[in-house]
Design goal:
The protein has 15 helices and no strands. It folds into two domains: 42 residues; 228 residues, MetI-like (MetI-like fold, Orthogonal Bundle), CATH 1.10.3720.10. The protein is an all-alpha fold. Helices cover 73% and strands 0% of the residues. The protein is flat and about 65 Å long. About 6% of the residues have low confidence.
Length: 291
């Protein structure tokens, strides 16, 4: 039978709608599954019976985590490290990228090659540890926020973004009496909201998820970020979870869904912030990565 025009349109529309449903489902399913496992009991998780809804609903792990004072101290530390680290990184990355974007800068090629060189070669773990220790950064916030203050990848994206700015804008601002700092603050940065929001997201996620630097350089649990606290829970090394009125069954229950709980607790803040910067995300990366 010859298909009518209306039926062909229906088939195209039907395929389009089904593709959207599949894409959304494939995107949301893993996250929903993790949330369901975080509220499920050990038996159902081990049996693989948890999909979109919790089975054997329990709040044991959440109760153990949120009732521990050190968890909230470590969570506050993570917020502080993220805010301070992101601020420092954005300041250094912006001024470095802006300087390298100017062709008139003396030694521009050398500085660019030197920066890119560090993307592929570094001193190694032991020299880095010796350096941090010699600077007196051990057991301080600076051991977390200073070593990775500039991401060369992010800097190169911002550099490309600034290079695409019309030079006539800066020339006009210069004629009006603005110096280099005034041009950057009053002209360039207001026009760079997309790439700035993208870089803030990149740096914030990096600092929020970081745990290895804290694992190396911090010895006091009062200084740990929440990622170290949750790592210790997974490894069974958190003393507060192994002492007090905690039965063997509860510890077994905690060990069964602790990974899901830690993922939910870690991702929620970033998931809350992301919608506000999502509209800048794609345009910021694409505009800054053309070259």
């Amino acid at each position: 039978m010859k298909e009518s025009k209306q039926y062909k349109i229906f088939k195209v529309f039907n395929v389009f709608v089904l593709l959207i449903i599949i894409i959304v489902f494939c995107t949301l399913y893993p996250f929903i599954n993790v949330i369901a496992q975080s509220f499920s009991s050990e038996a159902y998780i081990n049996a693989g019976k948890v999909s979109l809804l919790p089975k054997g609903f329990n709040m044991e792990t959440y109760k153990k985590v949120v009732s521990d004072k050190i968890f909230w101290i470590n969570y506050k530390n993570t917020v502080v490290y993220t805010v301070v680290g992101t601020s420092i990184s954005m300041f250094l990355t912006t001024i470095f990228a802006y300087a390298l974007s100017k062709k008139r800068l003396v030694g521009r090629k050398f500085l660019t090659v030197f920066a890119v060189f560090t993307m592929f070669f570094n001193g190694g773990l032991i020299p880095n540890y010796v350096l941090i220790n010699s600077l007196g950064f051990n057991n301080t916030m600076w051991a977390i926020v200073i070593p990775g203050a500039i991401s060369i990848y992010n800097m190169l994206i911002m550099k490309s973004f600034f290079e695409n700015m019309p030079e006539e804008l800066e020339e006009a601002a210069s004629i009006d009496g603005l110096n280099t700092y005034g041009i950057l603050l009053k002209i360039i940065l207001p026009l760079s909201k997309a790439v700035i929001a993208t870089m803030i997201l990149f740096y914030a996620v990096s600092y929020w998820n970081s745990w290895f630097s804290a694992f190396l350089y911090l010895d006091k649990k009062e200084l740990f970020p929440v990622t170290i606290y949750l790592r210790n829970m997974i490894a069974g090394a958190t003393s507060s979870m192994a002492t007090g009125a905690t039965s063997a069954d509860n510890l077994t229950q905690i060990s069964a869904n602790i990974k899901s709980v830690t993922m939910v607790l870690t991702i929620l803040p970033i998931l809350t912030v992301y919608p506000f910067v999502q509209k800048y995300f794609v345009s910021g990366v694409m505009l800054g990565s053309v070259k």
